[in-house]
Input
Amino acid sequence: MDLWRIERELAAAGSEPICGVDEAGRGPLAGPVFAAAVILPFGLDLKNLNDSKKLSQKIRDKLYDEIVESAISFGIALADVKEIEELNILKATFLAMNRAIDSLKVNPGIALIDGNRDPLVKCRSRLVVGGDVKSASIAAASILAKVSRDRYMAEIAKAYPQYAFDKHKGYGTRQHCNELLEHGPSEIHRISFLKKMQSEDGIWKTKNGMDREDQESRAGTVQRGKWGESQALDYLKSKSYIPVAESVRSRYGEIDLIVKNSEYIVFVEVKLRKSANFAHAREFVGKDKQRKIIATANHWLSRHKNLLQPRFDVIEVYAPDGSAQPEIIHIENAF
Output
């Protein structure tokens, strides 16, 4: 794509100097939102110039230095967490954009702004949806904003080592959510962004909505399930079955184990039963679950060469006291 097409059209219409404007950090759970404004020499050739999100950190850092060195003028600004909370993230982003333009040493004739919302800057402006892949000026601004924010978060991580901001930059990754669960929010977290992670009694939840007690309970359940599957696999090996795959997932469902012998490729559903007071675990492999297992098996078979006859088994692992020697009930051709 010709990244200078928009600028070339505007220059022909007498709109120079042309300034590109973009932001970084609207989505994270912590830290400020950054914006950058940059006026490039017309037609400047910057290798790999593109949307900052599509570039590696190494290339972004290299381009940052080249843009700063070559720009006619550039400005980088932020709106802090307090401003984000008081104004909302959209208005705070507009504030950062205006600050970035105001810090330019050259007054732009027009500002090319990434997006479809007008930040009401003090100069003439034009909105460009997807501008960071259509305009060299906006692409350059996106790199300045992104690199500046990433460096800020890496520096602030030194004051808050428990959150590893240098790794996830404040975005809502699983790691970050686990850190919030353990430590709660800091003063640089955007509390308004975290409300879905907090219950009415103030208990912090993980990204999938579980509080600490729920998470620990689920972790225990998953661990017991994996233990049951390992017991089932050991049993199958003792019966001369050869392991093929474990925990096979598709958009249809999941299969616990896939094994084979000389005649069959076997898709195994493992059920763990802990108490004699409950029904047999194998009874909980209902019609809906069966359909999901069969669909996942067909999906797997379509991607793997196989000449064996498919079979669906259920293995019940009965471990009333969690002992290392549970009772194994193997139901061949269960459905």
About this structure: The longest strand covers residues 264-273. Residues 212-238 form the longest helix (27 residues). The chain has a mean pLDDT of 86. Residues 161-213 form one domain.
